[in-house]
Structures are given as C-alpha cells and as structure tokens.
Write a structure and sequence with these properties.
The chain is mostly helical and about 160 residues long. It is built from seven helices and three strands, in the order H-E-H-H-E-H-H-E-H-H. Helix 6 runs antiparallel to helix 7.
Length: about 160
Amino acid sequence: MSDIVNQVVEILERAESFLVPLEWIIEKLEEANKLPSISDEELIDSLRQDPRVKVFEKEDPEEIAGEEFPAAAQSISSLGLSGSPRVMLKSRVPTKSEIVAFLLQKADQTYDALFKAWQIRPEHDEDTEDQLLDALAKAQKLQRELRTIKRQQDAKVINEH
C-alpha cells in the first residue's frame, strides 16, 4: 500500500493546486496504469495514515448550503456538485494568493451551482425562490469581497517588484 501512497505523493508534488480532488488523483493513476485494484475507501484510508498527506472529507451539500437553505442543498445534490474528498501534501503550505484564488474558484462554483438551482427551481414556490435569491446574493457578495482581496494582493505583488 505504501507504493500507491508514494505515487500519490509524487502526483501531489507535481500538481498545480495545493489541494486536489481524490477523483483527479485517481484519474492520474489510471492514466499511468498505476492504479491497483483497491477501493476508493481503501485508498483514502491509506492516505489518512500517511504523515505526509492530509485528507479533507467529502463536502456535504447541507454543510455547503446550510440548514436554512434546504432547497439549495437538495439542488446541489441533484446537480452532482458535492465534491469528492480533497488531498494535499502537509509540506506544501499554500501562499495567501493561492488560498484566495482557491476560495474565489469555490465561490464562483457555488454561485454557478446556485444559479443552476435557480433555473430548475420549482414553479410557484416562493419560499424556495426566496432562499435561492438570498443564497445567490450572499454568493455574489463573497465573490466581490474575494475579488477585492485578490486585486489588493496582485497590486501588492506588483509594487514589491
């Protein structure tokens, strides 16, 4: 099992992002014909036991949308947008810029998912519409705030050079 974990560590060392979905790692192992016949759960367990790796559990749609937005949580699930576990190297400490970019990407994905949920919302259901509109407004606000932080960081980097 340590052989597969070593291969995963090599993949993580070469990955552009500091945090990658387990599904992506599995794809890379399959492309290299290095995926042993083990279940995803066995792979996750092996990664959890390795001190070089941190596994972040699968995102729960109800945690993403919150208890106050049950319709949004249901829409997120029905669209297949809850994520697979994420994996990162403990030694690869992300920069502030990488974290902001990651959060902005997630905020954009959340907004897109909520917009898709809005498009397929049940007709004549004002409660669901209100929940989705509130969630869309909050997602847009988060996007604006993160973009502002990103612009400030980009300007800071330019001024330092």
